[in-house]
Amino acid sequence: MSVTFKQLRKDFPILSQSIDGNRLIYCDNAATTHKPQSVIDAVVECYTRYNSNIYRGIHTFAEKATQRYEDAREKVAHFINAHPQEIIFTSGTTDGINFVAQAWAKRHIGVGDNIVITELEHHANLLPWQRVAQETGATLRFIPVLPDGTLDVSHLDTIITESTKLVSVVHVSNAVGTHNDIGLIIKKARVVGARVLIDAAQSIAHQKIDVKKLDGDFLVFSGHKIMAPTGVGVLFIKKELHNDVEPYRVGGGMVQNAIMYDATWLNAPHKFEAGTPPIAQVIGLGAAIDYIKNNINFDDLCTYEASLCSQLIDGLSLIDRVKILGPIEELKKRGHLVSFLVEPYHSHDVAAFLNLRGIAVRAGHHCAQPFAAKLGYDASVRVSFFFYNTPEEVDFIIKAIQELVDLID
Ligand code: PMP
Asked: What is the pTM of this model?
């Protein structure tokens, strides 16, 4: 790469902000990422130069907005190695999983069947399946986690069985950063003919995603985790399933022909996008993907983020009272986040203390409450990186945690 990650910081206007006189150190990237100027400009340009609803209008702005919207679909498709027809714009990961639950699972899963997820899931990939199980009479099964936050795959054959209809699994955990061996899980699912959904919310911005290599049937992510605006997400549905998935919502924009008592649908992706979509946000997502393409090499990014994780883990390991969660050695090799406890403080207090120094981190169960309960904590502190974070920032965080611990020792 011709420019270093540090040089890219200048593209993010928010990073020059201060919090109560302290320079912002933003390490809450697993919750949401910041937007480069080019993404902000793309959204502003949409609203200031050609704002219009798409498809319906035969006028210059409508055509331009439609073109930009469909360009973004092509960019997303190319980015994850899919066909544009396989790209459905949603409002985010949560919306995408609920979409599959309602529009596919409820029609293909019933009494006697089971749905397999893991004990590591974000609530977005737990609650929709609890609901499908309750409403259809199917059973929910879990691939268990080990104390280090990795999956115990030693009994997969008894969990994924002939009656498994869907395996829905998080690619990278937002709670402790585990990279799941989804290749192995998908292989088992294929043997029994189960469909597979991949929650790529935490992997999409940090590693190359290739839907053909992964070989899932559905894949979901949120735009805001990859520098795009909030309010837009992507649901990939493999083409061969398009006839098995009903529209999640029905209404304008997806109809081929409507009569008083019935209607027929357009082909995918329009069949799945009823109503006015988040046009400016989708265009912003297209700009975010352009930004990645122009500036980021995923191998370099992975090495860089892992080096920040290593530095943080090594520094925190020297501080008594800090307990690091998750698969430490793996995080040092390919992580982008580190979760930990600082005993005896509650994690919310640790985050509040860091905030006094301008450091933005997240504390809580990270919407993975059953997982936290299983590992025996109610809330952890999570420091999550992106390419615009620096080793100097990591030093600052370690120093702040040491100061906090020194207050009691
Ligand atoms: N799954 C994972 C792994 C996540 O990290 C998140 C966001 N924290 C979600 C699902 C839900 O994403 P969203 O709130 O954008 O729908």
From this structure: 0.97
